[in-house]
């Protein structure tokens, strides 16, 4: 039986970077967008009136950790990392629901030590959020990354580990550098893997039909990641303009996660020297985001939700606000959060509002001038024509 719904939108931002349109009628048939026009709705259709809202595509948070919350309680932060699946499962479910409430309809999980997020998604196929998961990430022995993954076995190469793993993830996560210092501004850490090791890992992943997302900060780790052919660079603090040019030339996607520094800075006392360090790191990242826009680097929005002070769902609009502060227009940042994010996850029928695309939509209260803050509590969220919020 054919189901037809029509929606009256006061404003519509389609996710392509085009300017917002006014007074648009969307016709949806069986969860798929059939047409966009300014004509009156058909009398036989079910009409939903969102004339006081701005409708935009469902958003993607391209970097989260579902097993972790954004709490600032250090005791909770320690215990949530290495718990059994049975304790993680309800936490993961809660974070997926929190994401939906902020218009985040798809997420990319960057891994956890037990592969719990991947298992949850595999065992719960009816969740409305489209979740792509790395499972357990890969890191070098005795290097940063224990909270998200493990090193290859003794005598095993990274490429060999990927080929023989068998956990069947949606993509491969590699930790390619260390963390950013909040005390020594711009301090860089050495790469965890060589260019040759990463290149072989990329080829091993491609044989499985998978891409690599890589945690990389600093000039050399990012350069190696881009030259090796990793699909996306996560974080990318202090990587320099030359790496931005490489990314633009190679089509590498950058997920800056600037909100991590804002979230951390807001969670600690003003007299803590790490607060000033986090804000200084944020300023440097904002400058790189501005340069990347000018150079034509493809960027997707990711929050690293689960980091200190970075909460699932609602942190995405904060990342959007930071992008706008760095020079993005509202339409450009929605394109990064919707189309670019969907493309990165391989969701070809999502990310824009157009005929033949899935009717996965966010109804944000008010006009475009109220965005992105109005995403804190959307009027409604629809996934494939079904209202889920």
Automatic annotation (TrEMBL):
InterPro entries: Amidohydro-rel, Metal-dep_hydrolase_composite, Metal_Hydrolase, Metallo-dep_Hydrolase. Coiled coil: none annotated. Residues 54-388 form the Amidohydrolase-related domain. It holds the Pfam family Amidohydro_1. SUPFAM superfamilies: Composite domain of metallo-dependent hydrolases, Metallo-dependent hydrolases. GO terms for molecular function: hydrolase activity, acting on carbon-nitrogen (but not peptide) bonds. This is Imidazolonepropionase.
């Amino acid at each position: 039986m054919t189901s037809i719904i029509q929606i009256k939108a006061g404003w519509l931002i389609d996710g392509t970077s085009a300017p917002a349109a006014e007074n648009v009628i969307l016709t949806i048939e069986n969860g798929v967008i059939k047409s966009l026009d300014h004509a009156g709705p058909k009398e036989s259709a079910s009409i939903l009136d969102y004339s006081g809202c701005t409708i935009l595509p469902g958003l993607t948070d391209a970097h989260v950790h579902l097993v972790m919350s954004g709490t600032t309680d250090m005791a909770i932060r320690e215990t949530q990392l290495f718990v059994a699946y049975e304790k993680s499962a309800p936490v993961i479910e809660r974070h997926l629901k929190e994401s939906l409430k902020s218009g985040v309809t798809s997420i990319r999980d960057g891994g956890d030590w037990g592969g719990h997020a991947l298992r949850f998604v595999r065992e719960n196929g009816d969740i409305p959020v489209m979740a792509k998961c790395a499972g357990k990430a890969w890191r070098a022995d005795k290097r940063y990354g224990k909270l998200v993954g493990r090193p290859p076995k003794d005598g095993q190469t990274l490429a060999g580990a990927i080929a023989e793993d068998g956990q069947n993830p949606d993509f491969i996560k590699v930790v390619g550098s260390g963390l950013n210092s909040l005390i020594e501004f711009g301090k860089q850490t050495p790469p965890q893997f060589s260019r040759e090791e990463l290149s072989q890992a990329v080829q091993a992943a491609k044989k499985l039909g998978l891409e690599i997302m890589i945690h990389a900060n600093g000039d050399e780790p990012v350069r190696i990641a881009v030259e090796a052919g990793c699909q996306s660079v996560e974080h990318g603090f202090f990587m320099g303009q030359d790496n931005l040019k490489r990314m633009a030339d190679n089509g590498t996607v950058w997920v800056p996660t600037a909100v991590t520094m804002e979230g951390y800075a807001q969670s600690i006392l003003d007299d803590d020297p790490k607060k000033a360090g986090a804000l200084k790191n944020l300023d440097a990242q904002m400058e790189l985001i501005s340069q990347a826009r000018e150079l034509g680097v493809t960027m997707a929005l990711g929050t690293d939700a689960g980091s200190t002070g970075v909460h699932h769902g609602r942190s995405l609009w904060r990342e959007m606000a930071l992008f706008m502060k760095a020079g993005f227009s509202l339409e450009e940042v929605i394109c990064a959060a919707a189309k670019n994010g969907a493309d990165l996850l391989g969701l070809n029928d999502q990310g824009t509002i157009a005929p033949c695309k899935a009717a996965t939509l966010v109804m944000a209260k008010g006009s475009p001038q109220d965005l992105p803050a109005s995403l804190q509590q959307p009027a409604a969220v629809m996934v494939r024509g079904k209202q889920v919020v």
